Amino acid sequence: MNADKKIIQIATDVLVIGGGTAGVAAALEVAGQGYKVVLTSKEDKVAQEAKDGAVADLTAKAEANANIEIMTNTVAADVKGVPGKFEVTLKTGDAAVEKTFGAIVVATGLTTTVLNDAYGLEMGPKVVSQSELEAMLAEGKLEAGKTVAFLVGFGQEGNPLVMQRVLDSLTALTKVADTDAYVFVGDIKLAADGLDALYAQARQEGVIYFKTKETPQVTVGDAMTISILDPVLRQRVEVQPDLVVVEEAILADEDNAALAVPLEIEADNNGFLQPDNVHYFPVKSTRLGIYLAGASRDLLSFEQGLEDAGNVALEVKKFLGDGNLEVPSNTAFVDVDKCTVCLTCYRCCPHGAIYWDSRAIIAESACQGCGICASECPNDAIQLGDYADDAMAQAVKDGQGSAGKSPWIVAFCCKNSGLEAMKMAKAFGYRVPAGLQAIEVPCAGKIDMDYVMDAFVQGADGVMLLTCHNGNCKSDKGALYASWRAEEIKKMLAAVGMPEDRLVCASLANNMGRTFSEISVELERSIKKAGS
Amino acid sequence: MTDKPKKALVIGGGIAGLTAAWELAQSQVDVELVEKSPFLGGHSISYCCKATDECVKCGACSVDKMLAQVVSEPRINVTLGAAVAKVDKGGKFTASLDVAPAYIDAEKCDNCGECFQEFRNTGAVVRGYSKNNTPLYAICADAAKDVDAAKLAGVCPKGAINLDAKATKKKINADTVVVATGFTPFDATKKPTYGYGVRDNVITGMELEALIRQKGQVVRPTDLNPPAKTAFIQCVGSRDARLGNLWCSQVCCAYGLRMARKIKYANPEAEVKVFYMDIQSIGKNFPAFYTQCKEELGFVRNIPVDVYPEEEGRMRLSYADEDTGERKDEIFDLLVLSIGITPGEDNAQVAELFSLDQDQDGFLVEKGEGVFLAGTAAGPKNIPASMAQAGFAASEALKYIGVTK
Prior knowledge:
The structure holds two protein chains of two kinds. Chain A is built from 14 helices and 28 strands. Chain A is α/β, with parallel strands linked by helices. Chain A has four domains: 181 residues, 3-Layer(bba) Sandwich (FAD/NAD(P)-binding domain); 139 residues, FAD/NAD(P)-binding domain (3-Layer(bba) Sandwich), CATH 3.50.50.60; 56 residues, 2-Layer Sandwich (Alpha-Beta Plaits); 144 residues, Rossmann fold (3-Layer(aba) Sandwich), CATH 3.40.50. In chain A, helix 4 packs parallel to helix 5. The two termini of chain A are 47 Å apart. By secondary structure, chain B is α/β, with parallel strands linked by helices. Chain B folds into two domains: 167 residues, FAD/NAD(P)-binding domain (3-Layer(bba) Sandwich), CATH 3.50.50; 156 residues, 3-Layer(bba) Sandwich (FAD/NAD(P)-binding domain), CATH 3.50.50. In chain B, the strands form seven sheets. Chain B has a five-stranded parallel sheet, with helices on one face. Chain B has a five-stranded parallel sheet with strand order 11-18-12-13-14. Chain B has a three-stranded antiparallel sheet with strand order 4-5-8, with no helix packed on it. The longest helix of chain B is centred in the C-terminal third of the chain and has 18 residues. Chain B is globular. Chains A and B meet through helix 1, helix 5, helix 7, helix 11 and helix 14 of A and helix 2, helix 6, helix 8 and helix 10 of B. Chain B: GO terms for molecular function: 4 iron, 4 sulfur cluster binding; metal ion binding; oxidoreductase activity. Chain B: This is Pyridine nucleotide-disulphide oxidoreductase.
């Protein structure tokens, strides 16, 4: 197969969208791999957030790097093309330029919003947001001798990033003379380095925390009052603060949703651009050639953004290499004569690999070989490398009669999960039916309904569809397609009077050898029972 | 003439070390991966899938996947059962290793498992957790002293067992080092009132992980029946001023709640209660996950102190009721202690060997000079975070050796 290895030339310039710290760091790391980088910021400068001087240093390095072109006040207005050759329209004011990039890194930032509505509060001089307090502390504007109360964790579930800001403010507050600080909090979110120590330290300095389920009642007027039922003292507690600090939610950049459309990736319900799927961690998107750094993918800290930058550079290098991309043997291929341009494939492709030009075309640089399109194509116009329909049919035939006296069970196994689970079961000596024939598929989304019906026609006593768990499919929706198809097949089996339980569709992880054994043995048992 | 490939030394074969090794190898660096135990995969290779009808993003499957990638990567050379005795640095690093005897010849062993079947009850043969471990079995020298040596040597149909194998020494030269020596799980006997090590149905969260991985379900150690009532006690060894452990381990709410839900999913009749101080947000869609948890599980914001024995291996917990403040007693079939992450027991020695610092808690801190840290050696972390940091460590190491700028 290596003889007809196919190489295609791709572009190697890289676009980094977002001039925050993660974006600047990603630009530097990618440039360090030897690629030319265009770094765009929608603001008039890059990396404004300051943290121990590290950011200014990064920005200076990026500005001095000959391989990095910084474009401020610039947005990616449109993205066309395919991985390895993205045609991007960059707009700076009214001026637009088109540039070609091999890969795109999205490093958009975070925004905040104050959650005063959750407490029925109007913002004002005595009721300030976390950001406003931070500004007051930075400018030394908080007078001595005040009582300050924080409200956090009632307007949102919260997270360590929110709590870090509160704890940092408390540390600063304890340095202002004669200040009393109270924190009204739901769950204290401390699952980040150093936070529990900060929390304990503030407590030692005299900060009082009230942890409660009930949202504190705040009355505002000349004298403000916060009242809660103290769960420890079991009585109502009242605090009269001079200043109330209202929590802020930290949210994904509001531009993400609009950016996702031309990039052909999806924003999740919180507006982040990475699916919640371990196969994409840390920095991959559903589409090859598009990588995510820092807050574009999740609520991440400054340090995690820098880590992402290093990981992005590794992924960019793996994809772009020296600009000669070797096409994997298992990309999908469209038969021009059969294609009616119904575009089912375009709609079901989870990897943004399909476009059309009088027929559907699968971009070789973008296809990840899951085969969902091949199984969904109503005209069977798409075939997938080693997993072509005739090869799959032959694989079923090859197993015919191999079972001997045991029931013949054809198990279509996703190579990422079910197949690994079977190998684990065998390695650990867990029982696997003697008549079980495993057929590897690249993704459960490649298990065509025809394969299953064909297996029954050939005489299989039972068929298994073994998929990843929903949310763990490497091709996002392959497991879902498989489960939908299984439902349809069961209806067909019922129509011809065949017991539905001859078809098992189950989700497994690669480490579930024991469960593989149990499921397959149970199917064998029910077949034997029916036959006896 | 092409440049000779650079070489990296990775210390520790857990998820962080595996990831760092694999990423370095992808950048055409030769890697020497050194692991002190007989198996690759670290603690996390014993963890289970916690999916209900859908994935809950624990990352346990990623460890098996990464392990499979590493063992099939020709640029990575693995040395198992090896301890670093000495490191010299004069431009390059030279590590002197003490390598434990290879009683099972990896070339001959085909993982048939006959040795394990025959000797599992003696402890003389132990088994790894992943099929990607080759060999999947190891001889435990101490326990092997108590069994018939000739019988043990003869049990292998391939003749792969050689009890006369000797310890060896090995020297490795490398241009850079990634230290990924991991963590030590909190020793639950340090909280003696829970009765860990005394009562069989008190287990740690990590033991529950391995149990589910091996059995496919949760069963009580004493009678192998699914427990009707299970309690999880959170923050065992974490956020504990008396122990001096002033850190959140960042993983226990995640594994605790996920396994609690897995128990409930497998057996909807089962009752599960979680005793906690503060529930930490885990994963991307935590509010939705937590809402489901609250529907399915009981939550008590109180950490019980005492555990009393009851009949049939049950345990009674006493705690203050959240609403009334009064003492409440409740009996459970299984008690799971959500033990935390503590600094690796060898950290002082590792710091000394590789010129690293330790923070106030005892976790390792980088000091520059070509040695990079990955994973829980540097502080509490979950699997995805360990992998992310390992990738970053690899990218920093590549810069240090001049593969990238």
